[in-house]
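User: Here's a chain of 120 residues. Predict its fold as tokens.
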Amino acid sequence: MRTDIRNSGTHEIDACELSPTTVFELLANDRRRYAFHYLATTVGATSLDDLADQIALWERTATADQHRDIRGDLHHRHLPLLADTGVVRYDPDRETVELRDCGDDLLAPFLKLVVGDDLQ
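Assistant: Prediction complete.
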């Protein structure tokens, strides 16, 4: 599946073309699934802190230390990976992230299958 997009940042690619294997790899991690779900229900960009707060609540570990660990994990590991595949737009300097249209188009059908009722 291919969706053309504009390249407007350092962590982006020009087209959203992912193999089924890549889609499943992206959804294989709980925090990435949580991030996708949150971003799919949020209009526009959101802050890294807001995303980490929500994931901490879903993981039922909303302590300051856990928030810091989740934030670091998102910043250094998950968000750059997602941005490199083109499904999100991540600005590490401003610490904002948003789901791209192509990310929503590619992942929404699969996300419905893997997101449980506990993420409402």
